[in-house]
Amino acid sequence: MLKRRFFLNKIVLFLSTLSAILGLIFLFWILITLTIKGITSLNLHLFTSDLVDNGLRNLLIGQFILAGIATLIGVPVGVLAGIYLQEYSYNSRLAEIIRNLSDIMMSAPSIVIGVFVYSILVIPVGHSNGWAGIVALAVMMLPIVVRTTDDMLSLVPKELREAGVALGVPKYRVIFDIVIRAAKVGITTGILLAFARIVGETAPLLFTSGNNEFFTLDLNHQFPSLTVAIYNLATMPNPQLVKIAWAGAFVLVVVVLIINLIGRYLVKDKK
Amino acid sequence: MIMEVKDFYFYYPNTTQPALKGINLPFYENKITALIGPSGCGKSTLLRSLNRIHDLYPGNRYEGEILLKNLETGEMENILEWKKEEELIQLRQRVGMIFQKPTPFPMSIYDNVAYGLRLQGKKKSEIDEKVEEALKGSALWDEVKDRLKQDARGLSGGQQQRLCIARAIALEPEILLMDEPTSALDPISTIAIEELAIKLREKVSIVIVTHNMQQASRISDYTAFMYLGELVEFGETSQIFLNPKEQRTIDYIAGKFG
Fold it and tell me: At what angle do helices B157-169 and B109-119 cross, to 10 degrees?
């Protein structure tokens, strides 16, 4: 009996270690390949010229414009919705429904969001445009921001709210001057992580903002983005173009990694 | 008398049993009134009714009257009849509150005290003056005058609690409610808060909830003993502690339950 248990224990330990190693192998394989191919493809020319001249400049700028404006839309709406859930809903039925819907939206496949925005913002216009890409990214970001704000506000002790109200402060000022400030670090971290999430998305942009080889700031037309460009370039027969894709992928991973690290650092600093 | 509770009942949401049953209790001007009693007797519930902080949560119900003296006309006004947000805001500026755990706002020491004054639309020079006055009034000025711009959360627990008192008295309330203000503090900070309460009595009437009977006997002029949502006995503190009339008061003070 005892022998059997020892034996089972060893098998489970072996299998779980193997699974962990298997996962790590692929992760490192990806990262190492990406780093080697990325770094060898990197050169200054990539950052000073646009895709039409085999550069990444318009793509990088485009990606940040799309993700940046999406953040400007998604953050206020998401934070306000989080405030509603935590401060005004008193956990009513409606709040429960919103929380559940928001959680479902968070796990919705990004391609679905892309197709949805395509049907409402691209088809009526007749062509891909930057705004559609922005809306798709904002929709992706929204549930993450709602959830983080909701969670972070719930960590603020209720005594702090009561202390504000007991001083004769109107409720909305208590929320904005005191509660939000107390939860500032957590909410900022959540926004950073949400930004890191959308800045690397391809599927929501694929049918919405399309792609553009040239530098542009005109959001009413096809708009350049790094992720969609990587998707297109990676399958090109020209090895020169594939190298640009590797360089772009490497830059993207580094950017996302840095944003994530800042987010983690903020959380750690708080503790 | 500055405040009077009359035939007061309080119900928490979705309950039919009142948490407070027919309370009648006066609060006298420039006196300290202590509310004592075992956990769950309703003393905090009563205290939190006096500035209607229960209104923050939906479903709480009041019945009866809580009268507050209008300092201009001398009339007693029923605060439970006030419905508008502005009336409640005014009530809370007149009836300040200190909590069990210190609640410094996430801002500088100066801004903590100035915050309420700014909301009242006071001028910068006047705010500076009042902040200093309030911090001196709460015996904190000497400790913080050189670091007014630092985050208030960096102060010790006792200092934070005195900061909260400064924040409350800066608005010059008529009444100060204290909900076990020293239960999270060390003995030395406790003594500082108690001395402060006695000093503040000159300017403001104080109602203090305390678990600590020695504290009640040390600082209060009047004591109310509550048990199971009822007011058992009210009187001058010396009378309650030396000559209690009710058997339950005698037993509680003797430490037979609690």
Answer: 20
